[in-house]
Amino acid sequence: MQLPPKVTERAFARLAEIGASDQGQALRVAVEGGGCSGFQYEIKLDAPEDDDLVLEGQGQKVVVDQVSLPFLADAVIDFSDELIGARFVIENPNVASSCGCGTSFSM
Questions:
Q1: Coil, helix or strand for 94?
Q2: Using an 8 Å Cβ cutoff, are 77 and 62 in contact?
Q3: How far is CA 15 from CA 12, 60, 78, in A?
Q4: Domain 6-106 carries which CATH code?
Q5: Per residue in 8-36, pLDDT tens?
Q6: Which residues pair with 76 in a beta bridge?
Q7: Coil, strand or helix at 71
Q8: 3-state class (DSSP) for residue 9
Q9: Which residues form the Core domain (predicted)?
Q10: Model pLDDT, residue 50
């Protein structure tokens, strides 16, 4: 059985910081075809849909659509604040290879 992705406290804290739920928004993490390695992540603020998987913490929500869910099994959604920039990152054990841009991968 595949486990749903996990969201770190740091990612939920960042969503709280930007007031996502106050605006009725959740962090949507989706996997789409494309990118230089075959798949790419789309990460954006969006309203939850009825059939989304909803992960909640600190009063915030992260949502994943049913099509993207198998690609994100056992993944960890985190927030990274480094010199190169602050961004949401996904540690995904299903990825066979990724490219230098960090947003595209193959399975």
A1: coil
A2: yes
A3: 5, 7, 11
A4: 2.60.300.12
A5: 999 999 999 999 999 999 999 999 987 77
A6: 6, 91
A7: helix
A8: helix
A9: 6-102
A10: 96
Tokens found for residue 56: 């909640």
At 10, which helix (H) or strand (E)?
A: helix 9-17
Q: How far apart are CA 43 and CA 18, in angstroms?
A: 15
pTM, 2 dp: 0.87
Alpha-carbon distance of 47 to 24, in angstroms, equals: 6
Q: What are phi and psi of 101, to 5 degrees?
A: -70, -20
Side-chain-side CA neighbours of 63 within 13 Å: the count stands at 17
Alpha-carbon gap, residue 96 to 48, rounded angstroms: 29
- What are the DSSP E strand ranges found in 1-107? 6-7, 26-33, 39-46, 53-57, 60-64, 76-82, 85-91, 97-98, 104-106
